[in-house]
Amino acid sequence: MAEAIALIDYGAGNLHSVENALKAVGAKVAVTADPDVVRAADRIVLPGVGSFKACAEGLKSIDGLVEAMTERVEIGGAPFLGICVGMQLLATRGLEHGETKGLNWIAGAVERIEKTDPAIKVPHMGWNDVALTTHVPSHDLLEEGEAYFLHSYHFAASDPHHIAAMTDHGGGLVAAVARDTIVGVQFHPEKSQAYGLALLERFLDWRP
Q1: Where is the active site (predicted)?
Q2: Could you say which of 3.30.565.10, 3.10.180.10, 3.40.50.880, 3.30.420.10 is the CATH number of the domain covering 4-96+106-205?
């Protein structure tokens, strides 16, 4: 029997493309904002595009949803995947359009990408390498390769041991964070063709 994945619906722009990608690799997906469905899910995926502030406010505006996610992941140990802004929301705070509190599941701040080279463009957009670090035991889920990125802000993790992968865009940027049963990726698996679909397929079988 296929495990149930709760794909969190809080108005994120990439919701349906993530849903289609998950279904393409055989996932049983419930697109939901219902706290009870989230509490019963085997795995949780949090998508996200746009500003940290708007996504955080949208997520928190749904009564009981953050509490249900926290209960299922932090207490129940359900595998969790955050994508793009869904990954950034794991941070303590975001600094886009003022300071906004995140979920604080992985300590850090989401800060604007600083241009250290005039040739470097912000947003960081397009295909780029994903290079694994040695800090976290999530490499049965993550693999090195090329993925599609689109972001102007990056996750500055407080603890380097939570940095699972890096990419280079005029300097190092965090491509993935992880701890325990939680992984967040800055890139878009749903736009990363074979590399991204393989990641989502591994997530279905991931046993952290």
Answers
A1: 84 (nucleophile), 188, 190
A2: 3.40.50.880
